[in-house]
Every structure is written in structure tokens, then in C-alpha cells.
Design goal:
Shape: globular
Order of helices and strands: EEEHEEEEHHEHEHEHEHEHEHEHE
CATH architecture of the largest domain: Alpha-Beta Complex
Low-confidence stretches: none
Oligomer: single chain
Number of domains: 2
Mean pLDDT: 94
Helix content: 25-40%
Strand content: 25-35%
Radius of gyration: 20 Å
Number of strands: 15
Structural class: alpha/beta
Largest sheet: 7 strands, mixed
Distance between the termini: 20 Å
Number of helices: 10
């Protein structure tokens, strides 16, 4: 087995080293990682906002080819293309302290390496129509969008969803919602991004740089009793405006805190409108499998903004917070 290039996060600094891959135990799988992708969570881990294990291999999202499986693994085989699971111990059912105890790239070693050995439950088959570059975008962003819209968000065909932004989660949400037959309103920072969202099928777009009080613009465009669900990615500075947009009985899928953790909100709005606010942190393996079946049946492909060779990972970490991307930033592990 060749030596593996490994990146570790030590006190907020990426450090690379060469290490021999670990042989899989009975319930483990050794994978050659062919691609990985970055999420805002990875930026937060580097900044110390998440309590992570010192020296952990970062990144929850990756895809590649199985090199070897442990003796007790029966549902995966050598040579198979697989994608990582954000929560390797959450296989199905409601979230609990037990199944939420560990995530890749934070508590457990993640994907920023050439070879990684993890429990078999940390892998699922890659969608047949996708490359590893494409599949590496799925574990966090796509599955979060799926849960926020459907398994937790309850979005139905013909309903109307407001989606914030045009980053990884948001773009997947646009694609999924339109494929399901929903109406989509998008808010983002430029007319160029709105045009690209429209190409994906969004029905209405609002440039929040042009209209800082974007909730008023949304209501002007669609009315007060139209928005069923908001995919809330902003946090502190956007939640109240999201509540303003919702119809009575509307729902908020709370995902991101891009504008801060602590929020001031009008509780009367929640009460008067009977609004349900639900927290979303990705989802479980069974949901991932369901999403992948949908991706295959609808032939949906991820939108990748930028592909960088693995040795330019620091450039990816620097670029993501700038928010200039449309879709995902991906690292190609097969090219340096």
C-alpha cells in the first residue's frame, strides 16, 4: 500500500504529512478518496467555533473507490464507488444524543487525505450517473437541503419555498424543489446569481444588495399568504425577515448562521402566524439513500463552481468565506 498524503487541522492550521493507510478492521472499509468538497462548517471548525479533535483530518464530504473491506462487511465490496456519510452512526430514525455523537472531519477523521479507513456505516454507494467530483458535494450540502425541504420541511408539489443564497445548500434546494414541482423564490447578492438561479428554474428572484429590506420586496412580489417554507441560511440578520414573509402556518428550516448565532426576533410573529421553526443538521443514512434514488431518477447533477487540485486546499479555505461561488467548491485528489 502506498503512503497516503494526509492533512490535519492543528490549532486552526492545516498541516500535511505522509502516513501509511490503516488496514480496515472487521467492520471497517478502506477507501481511496478521489474528491472532497468544502462546507462553511469546515471554516467554522478551523476558526474554533466547533469543539473538534486536535489533529483531526478535516472535511466531512468525500467520494472515492473502495480498496479493501473488513471481514464482517457484506454490503460493500472492493472496487465499488462510494460517498461518505456525515453522521456515520446515524442510520435512520429521529436524531438523538447517541447517533449525533460523532461527525466526520470534526470528531472522526474526514476526507482531506488520499486514503481513509472508517466504519462501513460511514459509506454509501455513489449515484451511478455521478463522478466522484460530483458525489463529493452530496454528504452535507445536498442532504441538508433534502431534509430541510422534504423529510423535515414537508414541502409538497405546488407549495412555495423561499431559499436564501446561492451557495451549496441553496443551489441543491433550488434543484430539488423544482424537480418536486414546487414554486421557488430566491434571494441572493447579485443579478448575475439570480440569472443563474433562474436557469435552474427559480420562479422569482430578489437581489438583497439592491433591496436590503428584501422581505418587503418578496411580499410585494408574491403576497403575504404564499410562502409555505423558508430555507433559512443567514441566521441573526435574516430570521425576522423570513418570519415576515411566511404565510400563517408556515415553516422555517433553520440551517445556517452566516450572519451570526444570536438573534433578536419578534416572538409575536411566530405565535400569531403559528410558525414552526425546526433545526436541521444534515440527516441520516436512510435519508441519504432516498435522496440518491431521487437524484438518479431525476438525473440531477450537482452544480460545481470551482475544482481545485488537492494541494490548493488552502486556497479553497480562503475562497469559500468570500461568498462569490455559485454551488460547490471541490478538491480533486487525483490531481495535484
Amino acid at each position: 500500500m502506498p503512503m497516503s498524503l494526509v492533512y490535519r487541522m492543528v490549532d486552526g492550521v492545516l498541516q500535511s504529512e505522509a502516513a501509511e493507510p490503516s488496514q480496515p478492521g472487521p467492520d471497517e472499509v478502506l477507501v481511496e478518496v478521489e474528491a472532497s468538497s468544502l462546507n462553511y462548517r469546515d471554516i467554522a471548525i478551523r476558526a474554533g467555533f466547533y469543539p473538534s479533535r486536535s489533529g483531526v483530518i478535516p472535511l466531512s464530504d468525500g467520494a472515492g473507490k473502495i480498496v479493501e473491506v473488513g471481514a464482517a462487511v457484506s454490503d460493500l465490496k472492493a472496487g465499488q464507488q462510494v460517498t461518505s456519510c456525515f453522521y456515520p452512526f446515524w442510520e435512520s430514525g429521529p436524531a438523538s444524543a447517541t447517533n449525533h455523537r460523532a461527525t466526520l472531519g470534526c470528531d472522526l477523521d474526514g476526507m482531506l487525505t488520499k486514503f481513509v479507513t472508517l466504519p462501513a456505516t460511514a459509506w454509501i454507494p455513489t449515484p451511478k450517473h455521478m463522478s466522484s467530483l460530483e458525489a463529493s458535494t452530496l454528504p452535507c450540502a445536498a442532504l441538508t437541503a433534502w431534509a430541510a425541504l422534504f423529510s423535515r420541511g414537508g414541502l409538497l408539489p405546488g407549495q412555495h419555498v423561499l431559499i436564501q443564497g446561492t451557495g451549496g445548500v441553496a443551489v441543491f434546494a433550488i434543484q430539488f424543489a423544482k424537480a418536486m414541482g414546487a414554486r421557488v423564490t430566491v434571494i441572493t447578492s447579485s443579478d448575475e446569481k439570480l440569472a443563474r438561479a433562474s436557469e435552474l428554474g427559480s420562479d422569482i428572484g430578489v437581489n438583497y444588495s439592491e433591496f436590503p429590506e428584501w422581505d418587503e420586496r418578496v411580499i410585494e412580489e408574491v403576497g403575504r399568504e404564499e410562502i409555505d417554507l423558508v430555507i433559512e441560511l443567514g441566521g441573526a440578520q435574516t430570521l425576522q425577515r423570513s418570519l415576515n414573509c411566511l404565510k400563517v402556518g408556515g415553516r422555517v428550516s433553520m440551517i445556517g448562521v452566516l450572519s451570526g448565532n444570536e438573534v433578536s426576533m419578534n416572538i409575536s410573529t411566530v405565535l400569531a402566524k403559528w410558525i414552526a421553526i425546526q433545526g436541521i443538521t444534515v440527516s441520516h443514512r436512510e435519508d441519504f439513500l432516498s435522496m440518491n434514488r431521487f437524484l438518479e431518477s431525476e438525473r440531477i447533477r450537482p452544480i460545481i463552481d470551482t475544482v481545485l487540485p488537492l494541494n490548493q486546499v488552502q486556497a479553497g479555505y480562503d475562497e469559500l468565506p468570500r461568498g462569490r461561488h455559485f454551488g460547490k467548491l471541490v478538491l480533486d485528489h487525483l490531481h495535484e
